[in-house]
Design goal:
single chain; mainly alpha; Hypothetical Protein Ta1238, Chain: A; two-stranded antiparallel sheet; 4 strands; elongated
Length: 175
């Protein structure tokens, strides 16, 4: 099978189910942003081997999210799901990282290390993906919840990796 099909040469693509839509369609924007997040997580994994198993789990869940967003209607095959246990998994990971961190009383600036910066990139891309899903018509409540918790996870990861590297967070100042 060739990688190129030429079916998208006029600016359209197919949703799961067969309907062709513009590549600028809101669903394409939503799952394209999820794909961008997944790619950035791949880079983050190279910098944070301690979290590789969790990040791979997240990448798999994001493929599930993408397939759900790419579906136009009922299909004749079983789609992967995102459910409450996926959200609880993220919360457990967040709580585990939080045990070793001091209470945050200020906003912090991204940076201090490559891994911290990448975690913040993942957080901000995740927030954009969440916004892209919120505007879609349909029942995407569980996906919005998952993405919301996932952005929290990346924030905590950004803090945890700095702590493990023995570096200080940079506190935001108004001047």
């Amino acid at each position: 099978m060739k990688i190129y099909t030429k079916t998208g040469d006029k600016g359209t693509t197919s949703l799961l189910g067969g309907t062709r839509v513009s590549k600028a369609h809101q669903k394409i924007e939503a799952y394209g942003t999820v794909d961008e997040l997944n790619s950035t997580i791949g880079l983050l994994r190279t910098e944070t081997p301690k979290y590789d198993t969790v990040l791979k789990n997240i990448q798999n869940r994001l493929f599930n999210v993408g397939s759900l967003l790419a579906t136009e209607r009922e299909v004749s095959f079983q789609l992967p799901e995102i459910d409450e246990k996926d959200i609880l998994y993220l919360e457990e990971q967040i709580d585990e990282m939080d045990k070793d961190l001091h209470q945050l009383k200020n906003f912090v600036l991204p940076g201090g290390s490559r891994s911290n910066g990448l975690a913040h990139m993942c957080r901000s891309i995740c927030r954009r993906a969440e916004r892209r899903v919120v505007v879609l018509e349909g029942d995407y409540e569980i996906i919005v919840q998952y993405l919301n918790r996932l952005s929290d996870y990346f924030f905590m990861l950004s803090r945890a990796v700095l702590h493990q590297e023995g570096k200080e967070e940079t506190i935001w100042t108004k001047d």
